[in-house]
Amino acid sequence: MCGIVGAIAQRNVVPILLEGLQRLEYRGYDSAGLVVVHDEELDRVRSTGRVADLTKKTASTQGLIGIAHTRWATHGVPSERNAHPHVSKNQIAVVHNGIIENYEILRTRLTSEGYEFASDTDTEVIGHLIHSYYKNGGTLLAATQAALAELVGAYAIGVIANDNRDQLVCARRGSPLLLGVGDGEHFIASDVSALLAQTRKVVYLEEGDVVELGRHGYKIFDVNGRHVERIVQLSELSNDSVELGLYQHYMQKEIHEQPQALADTLESVCNSQSLVPGIFGAQAANTFADIDSILILACGTSHHAGLVARYWLEEIAGIRCNVEIASEYRYRDSVANPKSLVVVISQSGETADTQAALNHAKSLGHTHTLAICNVPESALIRLCKLRMLTRAGPEIGVASTKAFTTQLAALFLLTLVLAKQRGRLSLQDEQRHLHDLRHLPSAVQKVLELEPHIAKLAEKFASKHNALFLGRGLHFPIAAEGALKLKEVSYIHAEAYPAGELKHGPLALVDKDMPVISVAPNDALLEKLKSNLQEVRARGGELYVFADANTHIKEAEGIHIMHMPEHAGYLSPILHTIPLQLLAYYVALQKGTDVDKPRNLAKSVTVE
Ligand code: F6R
């Protein structure tokens, strides 16, 4: 998704803006641009290439104040004329994340007032609207506030004017934006990672905030225009955590970070002797006592985590659980159960559909809400009464990896806490699960040792156009996640089916050109799965089986086995995710795709 960086300083801000944009590249973009004030003129440079192209094009650009943007096209094709910043009458420049829903009405009005539109974007109306107020006199802040009052939709914006080198104005509603506090300089960004090279002191803006930044201070005004103070926080992210280090790609790095990410997420629990609801917030015990079911809302990979959790929650905690795709739920007139706990799962905490689904659930009467999320201070964390932060660290690769396995760990903890509260967890079982959780990071580490074998296996996929993933029970969502990873990064069309469903249709697809990848844990459904694999083999399908020890599935003509080091019981879905992530990664390498920035995708989907 789009990214914003801005700076006002006593030095040339162009390198600051470019470095910030580079750090936002992971979010996905198709064009980039920046503008600075120089000699009372707006000096704007834009490019449809990578940030590296923009760097070349700005070699001689200089200014003490500027704003910059990476764009992921929504309104209008990716092109230089649609790239941000957008400029009005050479006087006002704007960068914008989000979507302005009433832009057509505004565009018609502004056109009749003599404004010319040079792009197809919704953003351009913001610049012209601010200009229409600014030209009558008054401050940039006042003109921006007046313009914002007319906008319907979501935005994070940065604004500068050609005749004011001393003030940068920014605002947010519905899209994230934060301030960076420096010494004699201030910054804005849509993501803290953009600012880490400049400062770790940050202020997370609240919904509706508008800010006037100078070099030596800033003033924040809330949604009602009142001057307010917001806490300055020290970001816990280190500069290193967003560096690639020795790895070739962020996806590979993040796959390898999973043992640590899991250990960090489970830290407080694994260091104690028993499970307490407090890990989900101070009110958790009371809330959990009041609920009779769970409603999980999420998108994409996070939705797959929810699907795994449904098995755990119903089987171990004995609590009814529904899992819904957020973008569908938000538009459905469902029957609300106020005794249900609404759980939103999200890496970014900013996904527009998940936020809208949560708000929809609240509007239907749901009051119990829990966010499982990887980003502190994100919108979903703020919108929920209960919360658990996964501690995966920044996930830069567009394909979600460590966020997924840490979400699973958090959801397993939720299951155990609810099971205990509902009298379904003996002391002995609690200790056994705690033991398994403590062992989990090293179990994942052992699975990672399969990497060279999987890299070899991936060679067989380079010429394929389709793939089928099979799993059963707890592991069907893992097959679905494996298929999603493969299609995202290698562009091979992949589908997942519960293995028992094969003969109800998809078996027709199986022939010698269709690789069939199966997740084969040593669980109660193993024998059923083996029969399904026979059905594939009998039709000439080539099988790739990730099998636990003692499954007695043998390597043979057309059957390739990858042996998993151990069976992890209920935690097995976490272990079985790892080889499928590695497979997708190495197939993508074979195919030469842009692994960390797959085409058409964005990291954090903040628009509908
Ligand atoms: C897939 C992927 C997406 C996200 C989805 C939800 O690899 O990353 O499917 O899982 O866009 O994003 P979050 O978890 O940030 O709400």
Structure summarized in a few sentences:
Helices cover 35% and strands 23% of the residues.
Total beta strand runs: 25
Global outline: globular
- Work out the helicity level: 25-40%
Q: Main beta sheet: strand number and arrangement?
A: 8 strands, antiparallel
Task: Supply the number of structural domains.
Answer: 3
* SS summary, helix count: 18
Distance N terminus to C terminus? 11 Å
Instruction: Extract low-pLDDT stretches.
Output: none
Strand-residue fraction? Answer: 15-25%
Radius of gyration: 25 Å
Hetero groups: fructose -6-phosphate
The largest sheet has its strands arranged as 3-2-4-1-10-9-11-15
Mean of all residue-level pLDDT scores: 93
Give the name of the CATH architecture of the largest domain.
Answer: 4-Layer Sandwich
The H-level CATH homologous superfamily of the largest domain, spelled out, is Aminohydrolase, N-terminal nucleophile (Ntn) domain
Description:
The chain has 608 residues and is an alpha/beta fold. The protein has three domains: 240 residues, Glutamine Phosphoribosylpyrophosphate, subunit 1, domain 1 (4-Layer Sandwich), CATH 3.60.20.10; 199 residues, 3-Layer(aba) Sandwich (Rossmann fold), CATH 3.40.50.10490; 141 residues, 3-Layer(aba) Sandwich (Rossmann fold). Helix content is 35%, strand content 23%. The chain contains 18 helices and 25 strands. The strands form four sheets. An eight-stranded antiparallel β-sheet has the order 3-2-4-1-10-9-11-15, covered by helices on one side. A seven-stranded antiparallel β-sheet has the order 5-6-7-8-12-13-14. β19, α12 and β20 form a beta-alpha-beta unit. The relative contact order is 0.09. The mean pLDDT is 93. It binds fructose -6-phosphate (F6R). The site of fructose -6-phosphate has 15 residues, from α9 and α16.
